[in-house]
C-alpha cells in the first residue's frame, strides 16, 4: 500500500481519537459509582479491546480470524503498560492534591493517554503486527527489482 507508515499513522490517529473519546465517556460513567483507579482500569480495559480490534483491521489491514486471539492477548499486554502509566498519573495527582476535581482527573488522564498512545503505536507496529509492516515494504522492493530486471 502506498504511504505505509504515513497511512498507518493516520489510521492509528483516527482510531486513537475515537478510542480516547470512548474511554473518557466510559471513565466518566464508571466514575459515578467507582473510585478513580477502578473507573480508569475498567474504562481502559474495555476501550483497549475495541482499540486493538479497530487498529488490527483499519490501521494494520489484518483481516480474518487468523491470530486474532494472539493479537488481543498482545494488545492486553500493551493495555497493562497503558494502565500502569494512567494509574501512576492518577496516584501522583491524588498525592499532590488530595481530592482533585473530575476535570483535573480527565486532564491528567488525557496527558497520560497521549504518552501511552505513542508507546502503543510503536508496540503495535513492531511487536503485535510486525508482519503487516514488513508485508507493506515487500511489494515495493519486489516492484523495484522487477522494474530493473525488465530494463
Description:
With 151 residues, the protein is an all-alpha fold. Helix content is 86%, strand content 0%. The longest helix is centred in the middle third of the chain and has 30 residues, at 68-97. The protein starts with a helix and ends with a helix. The model is unreliable at 140-151 (pLDDT under 50).
Order of helices and strands: HHHHH
Ranges where pLDDT stays below 50 over 5 or more residues in a row are 140-151
| CA gyration radius, whole angstroms | 19 Å
Beginning-to-end CA distance, first to last residue: 24 Å
- Coarse shape: elongated
Average of pLDDT: 85
What is the count of DSSP helices, taking H or I runs of 4+ residues?
5
* Strand-residue proportion: under 5%
Q: Could you give a short account of the major beta sheet?
A: none
Helix-residue proportion: over 70%
Structural class: mainly alpha
Can you count the beta strands? 0
Key traits:
151 residues
SSE layout and pairing:
Blueprint (H helix, E strand, L loop, with lengths): L3 H28 L4 H24 L8 H30 L4 H27 L1 H21 L1
Helix pairs in contact: 1-2, 1-4, 2-3, 3-4
In short:
The protein is mainly α and 151 residues long. It contains five helices and no strands.
